[in-house]
Specification:
The chain is built from eight helices and no strands. Helix 1 packs antiparallel against helix 3, helix 4 packs antiparallel against helix 5 and helix 5 runs antiparallel to helix 7. The protein is elongated. Bound molecules: protoporphyrin IX containing FE (2 copies). One protoporphyrin IX containing FE binds next to helix 1, helix 5, helix 7 and helix 8.
């Protein structure tokens, strides 16, 4: 049988998984330890206790500057995500049968949920990449910051869809692994083309 877990397929999968996990990590840090709101309050309170008064505006500027190097990683991981999308498009170009919508339509009834999850995961990742790219290059594209505000809202909200489909995917993979005992995770790491 033709191997499903080819080196290119595995490379694409782990590059994408690594980039999504990294991107989500930057979002978690931005909303928690490196949140400018809580850090600005902390900066203002600590400086005030040490006898130096700074305005809320200055404290916010410092808190954002502290967050900046971490947030750069949002864009670095985004580059890896973009590379993984290019690889996937190349794979679809080479073999149009693997186009996620076609796979979903052609899937037997018992595989619809799995294929549907992959399809919507791919769609939400494409929306994230396109909206993120639009935000990043808004000046270059000739849009004002206010003009792309709705894109930012879309970008933030679609993240919940990504979280939902990634969770469904992980639950499905674990179920597959333990119910069918087909070592699907090991195949995604080591491949299925070597003799066992
Ligand atoms: C956030 C990260 C992840 C994303 C975005 C992701 C995405 C995907 C997608 C889109 C597919 C379908 C590929 C196709 O069209 O055939 C897939 C397949 C697969 N993924 Fe992931 N994945 C992630 C993390 C993981 C992790 C952590 C594991 C292992 C525990 C894993 C194991 C697998 C396996 C075994 C398959 C093949 C399933 C099958 O053929 O039915 N994935 N993944
Ligand atoms: C699954 C992928 C992604 C997720 C989950 C994600 C998540 C987020 C979230 C939640 C925010 C809002 C942060 C906040 O204001 O609190 C954000 C902002 C942003 N993201 Fe993403 N993102 C993803 C991919 C990308 C990609 C591919 C790019 C492309 C460069 C990108 C570029 C941006 C930009 C430019 C901002 C605005 C930052 C700012 O206002 O300072 N994102 N992202």
């Amino acid at each position: 049988m033709k191997p499903q877990f080819t080196p290119l397929y595995r490379f694409w999968h782990w590059l994408m998984a690594f980039s999504i996990i990294g991107i989500l990590g930057t979002v978690v840090l931005r909303k928690t330890f490196l949140s400018w709101r809580s850090n600005a309050e902390l900066i203002q309170a600590k400086l005030s206790a040490a006898g130096t008064e700074v305005t809320a505006e200055t404290a916010k500027m410092i808190a954002k500057a502290i967050r900046e190097p971490m947030w750069e990683w949002h864009y670095i991981f985004a580059l890896f995500l973009a590379l993984s999308i290019v690889i996937r498009l190349y794979m679809v170009f080479r073999d149009p049968k693997i186009f996620p919508l076609l796979v979903l339509i052609r899937a037997p009834k018992e595989e619809k949920l799995q294929r549907g999850t992959y399809f919507f995961l791919c769609v939400s990742l494409m929306v994230m990449a396109l909206s993120g790219g639009t935000l990043y290059f808004h000046e270059f594209l000739g849009f004002s910051k206010e003009g792309v505000h709705w894109v930012k809202e879309l970008h933030e909200n679609i993240m919940y869809a990504v979280l939902l489909f990634v969770s469904m995917h992980l639950a499905g993979v674990l179920r597959h692994e333990f119910v069918t005992k087909e070592s699907i995770i090991s195949k995604m790491i080591h491949g299925d083309d070597e003799p066992v």
